[in-house]
Design brief:
TIM Barrel, about 15% strand, about 40% helix, 13 helices, alpha/beta, eight-stranded parallel beta sheet
Length: about 350
């Protein structure tokens, strides 16, 4: 396992981050119903991840239900005493509980969410605390001041954001700089061979401002794992068998072309399609760590092999070309005029 700095922050994280969204057997009210791992399996996955060199775990208060994923991680910390071996990330913003302030990123709510996550995780600090999505109802400086107070108190070490528009992210960084507040050090965002829209604005912004990118859904909900075939139903037990609407969204010529290219490169590299897809992301500018999920040890070990896959320039070019997308205006106009764009 190799390690990279989290953006320009001094802390180093493993190139692969274990995503904990699947931890816990969620009930029928949760979108993770029937696609999670029970507590015993989750404990085994975390222990094996550390053995393989992973030192970074990402979760959120809404994963599972009632903080299920955080509670499982907290129980593991208490049982196995391995808290200080990890950089722990969690998120807040979406609906938890009831009442008028059950969601959002107000100061009132941030302080409560942080305390609740600390209790569920059974820890004295959150190493990376991330707002799960921008909140248009809350002024950005209110959010930043609350997070800065948590940093000052030692309850949070670094802050980050997820699912932000580029203009909002730039505004946030400007506010942090001009008002001497703790800035975001990382952006967690959807990024994969299937979903490359981040390259229009966010990747250049993060490169200029020094943020580390943490891709989520790097295998496009498992589509890039290679287990799916054009014109055939999803395999029994696969995540996209449960999420059929999402599977239908992947069913287009571009995505099957991408999958064909991934399979071809995997054959040449003696690797799995999953490993190739993750390895491609690790070659992208500003990526600090790629967040992947695993429901069992086999999936975990398969995905970790990505750090040993070296893609040559010709293979990267083929993957880039197969996954090319319409930049749209004004990006396509600028690229046509200035080839170095």
């Amino acid at each position: 396992m190799k390690y990279r700095k989290l953006g320009t922050a001094g802390v180093k994280v493993s190139e692969l981050c274990l995503g904990a969204m699947t931890f816990g057997e969620a009930d029928a009210k949760s979108f993770m119903h029937k696609v999670g791992s029970d507590e015993k399996a989750s404990f085994a996955i975390m222990n094996r991840a550390l053995e393989l060199g992973i030192n970074f775990i990402d979760t959120a208060d809404v994963y599972g239900q009632e903080g299920l994923s955080e509670r499982i991680i907290g129980a593991w910390f208490e049982r196995d005493r391995r808290r200080n071996e990890l950089v722990l990330a969690t998120k807040f913003r979406f609906t938890m509980g009831d009442g008028a302030n059950k969601s959002g990123a107000s100061r009132y709510r941030i302080m409560r969410c942080a305390e609740h996550s600390l209790k569920r995780l059974r820890t004295d600090r959150i190493d990376l605390y991330q707002v799960h999505m921008q909140d248009l109802d809350t002024p950005e400086d209110e959010l930043l001041r609350a997070l800065d107070d948590l940093v000052t108190q030692g309850k949070v070490l670094y802050i980050g954001c997820s699912n932000y528009a580029a203009y909002r992210l730039m505004n946030s960084l400007w506010l942090s700089r001009t008002k001497n507040l703790s800035p975001f050090v990382a952006l967690q965002a959807q990024y994969s061979l299937v979903s490359r829209e981040l390259e229009r604005e966010h990747v250049p912004l993060c490169r200029t401002e020094g943020l580390g990118i943490l891709p989520w859904s790097p295998l496009a909900s498992g589509f890039l794992s290679g287990k799916y075939s054009k014109g055939q139903a999803a395999p029994a037990g696969a995540r996209l068998e449960q999420w059929q609407e999402q599977m239908s969204g992947f069913d287009n010529e571009r995505n099957w072309r991408i999958l064909d290219a991934v399979r071809a490169v995997a054959g040449e590299a003696n690797a799995t399609p999953s490993a190739v897809s993750l390895a491609w992301l690790l070659t992208q500018p500003q990526v600090s760590s790629v967040i992947f999920g695993a429901r069992n040890i086999v999936q975990l070990e398969d995905n970790v092999k990505a750090v040993d896959v070296t893609l040559n320039a010709e293979q990267r070019k083929r993957l880039d070309e197969a996954s090319s997308f319409d930049l749209g205006y004004p990006y396509s106009f600028m690229k046509g005029v200035q080839s170095s764009w």
